[in-house]
């Protein structure tokens, strides 16, 4: 009965912000949870879901056409949401939850340079959470220039045992004036490298030895007509860091990321500056996350 009541409340929330037809469609999609009673019970037992699930669309992992990966089955989508919620409930405290899920986010790294403030934040993906429950966002002052989104999933979904790992499922760089300012300040660098460095720092704090990243044609916004762009933004990007194919929908990246020896690089000064920035981001991210580790709850 609790889940039926939750479905009804979700329908009412959607009805307040959209038309009846849209609310009905979402309610019908969400009701598929009733086909999986054991997973439904797991969701009911998670306090985190009641407090921090996506406001206005608490069954977002079912109401959208896809969740995290185009290749996930319906059962895998539900289990992935359970695994993420359970991991966050088990491993982080209330202060972290409020910072990440109810406020602008947890600051992972910040630097003032050339009169601008550059910030990396970890926050709930409030725009398209079905593309990844959490996002690392890079800001120039108050303007977002890049995001990488991820969720905590069980590696069994990749045929890799039963550990919990971070699954990077969205990568987006904004084309705006702030992006130009970033490139002027951090020469020979890219915003996505900063976001990936922060994700590595989070993985290290979690004791994870690898990350998983979405293949371009499994990304939920993928379309054949944009194949080249998606391949460059996803699959080719992960391959730059020695990613190995894990299964039909993902790559596996080893932590820390393997980098070419400095002796093999032509522009060593530039490479050193880039790596110094990445190392600082990893260091600061680990420090920020450790403040919210289980031992410090």
Describe the model.
The chain is an alpha+beta fold and 297 residues long. The chain folds into 2 domains: 2-65, no CATH class; 94-296, Aminopeptidase, CATH 3.40.630. Helices cover 44% and strands 20% of the residues. The chain has 12 helices and 8 strands. An 8-stranded mixed sheet has the order 1-2-3-4-5-6-8-7, with helices on both faces. Helix 1 (2-17) packs antiparallel against helix 2.
In short:
Helices cover 44% and strands 20% of the residues. It has twelve helices and eight strands.
Key phrases:
alpha+beta, eight-stranded mixed β-sheet, Aminopeptidase, 20% strand, 297 residues
Write the layout of secondary structure elements.
Elements: H1 2-17, H2 20-30, H3 37-44, H4 47-52, H5 60-63, H6 74-91, H7 94-102, E1 106-113, E2 116-124, E3 134-140, E4 143-154, E5 164-173, H8 177-185, H9 191-205, E6 210-214, H10 227-233, H11 235-239, E7 244-247, E8 250-254, H12 268-290
Parallel strand pairs: 5-6
Antiparallel strand pairs: 1-2, 2-3, 3-4, 4-5, 6-8, 7-8
Classify the beta-strand content into a percent band.
Answer: 15-25%
Percent helix, as a range, is 40-55%
Per CATH, the class of the largest domain reads Alpha Beta
Note the gap between the termini: 33 Å
CATH arch. level architecture of the largest domain: 3-Layer(aba) Sandwich
Please give the radius of gyration in angstroms: 20 Å
Stated plainly, the CATH topology of the largest domain is called Aminopeptidase
Please trace the helix and strand order, writing H or E for each element: HHHHHHHEEEEEHHEHHEEH
SS field, number of helical segments:
12
Number of E strands? 8
Spatial strand order of the main sheet: 1-2-3-4-5-6-8-7
Number of domains: 2
Gross morphology is globular
The quaternary state of the protein chains shown equals: single chain
| Mean pLDDT across residues | 87
